[in-house]
Amino acid sequence: MLTAAILERAADGYAAWLEHVRPAAGCSRPVRLFGELDTVAEHTGEIQATARTADMPDGVLYKACGNRRHKVCPSCAYTYQGDAFQLIRAGLVGGKTISPAVAANPAVFATFTAPSFGQVHTRPFRRHLCRDKSRCSCRPDPCHARSHGSAETCPHGVTLACFARHELDDSRLGQPLCLDCYDHDAHVVWNHQAGELWRRTKQAIERHLNHTARRRGLPPVRVAHGKVAEYQARGAVHFHAVLRLDGHDPDNPTSPATPPAGLTAIDLHDAVHHAAATITHTTPAHPGKSEGWRIAWGGQTKVTVITMTGADPLTDQMVAGYLAKYATKGTEITGHTSRRLDERSVTLYADPDGTHTERLIAAAWHLGDDPDWAGLRRWAHMLGFGGHFLTKGRRYSVTFSYLRQARALHHCTSASGPEPDEINRQDHLDTETTLVVGRLTYVGTGWHTIADALLANTAADQARRRHQAGREDLAHEHAHTTQLLAA
Hints:
Elements: H1 2-11, H2 14-21, E1 31-41, E2 47-52, E3 61-63, H3 74-93, E4 107-112, H4 184-215, E5 221-231, E6 237-247, H5 265-278, E7 280-282, E8 294-296, E9 302-305, H6 316-326, H7 346-349, H8 356-367, H9 374-378, E10 390-392, H10 400-413, H11 420-424, H12 426-429, E11 434-445, H13 450-486
Antiparallel strand pairs: 1-2, 1-3, 1-11, 4-6, 4-9, 5-6, 5-10, 7-8
Helix pairs in contact: 1-13, 3-6, 4-5, 4-8
């Protein structure tokens, strides 16, 4: 049946159909749109041409879903990850309209974690013997080892000890030793308030640096950032952030200026640690918690200086790769994936006496019953966290919109073979003399048939593999050239 459908599609205008679906070819759940597209002169408003989707293959226009989560749509997540990499790296070394001078600005990579809400199963390491932590093969220490006779028992009769050396795929990782002792309410509230904690922390970092600058007789400075949120196995978000030290130019306040020479990456490093250790705030009162919850970072803040020379310990490409990878993740590490919940669907995922994740969703739903805390219900499917997964300061780098326009321009002009430098210039993005205005209606999601999905995704996968092979060849050639120059 499937083979017959594939052969039928391949024999009936396959090349034209494949070109038509190419913008959404790798998407798992493309959006189907019906209507008309008008080509309009930008300055006069004159309609120069009209295209009807009824005259196109399948009678619809396909648009990629654009979902950033790899588990939802690997193809769209791949594109998003590439854009995220370029966005983060441009803020460190320049390019994409960002001045290359930013490469000289001190920068650090910081990880901010949530505090403890109860003991959970972990993979502790007394010390690493490997050099590359991303490919670590070290043997972990026992999870919660206790000497004989000293193992503590909680009020619910659970022994708070675990002697297992958990593997990475162990389902117990992130699960509380005692579900009843774990503070699920505080956990979801912390997730919900983590964005406000980050805002105050960023302000505190700048205050600390400017205080240091005044003591040294230096002009004021600012901090630009790119930040990604990631879920830990226990369901708490933590933030990975690139923080870049900039000077302040009153004549051009939106541009990243060179900071004064008297401040270094070490000062930025110290400011981050100081802010993470001191900044806290208390939430408004809740009917179930009249004094509110205290929101603060955990004690495992890690800050590493970023180098732009390709040497250890952490380079711009490594940081951009880390953040781009984290940006395509969601709650799947906790075993939970769902869309926004309502009164009917929440019963499928929430249980105050169920698993750890079910209790977190139940806590968010219950606390969100209060009108002042309705955001917890809105984001119960995200365990209370309602922020964006990748954010940046205005001065840090380019926007996703700019990168998408540049990619669209590249696709439109690749047949005529423009120079790469021309594609990336802002003036080329502004030379459009016509606009395409759509009068489109949503008619469905997904491919018409499994055969269509297989053919489109196979073609897109082959294109991605060719693109990846080209990137690897360029990287190999660059590394070889660098070695020759060094010799």
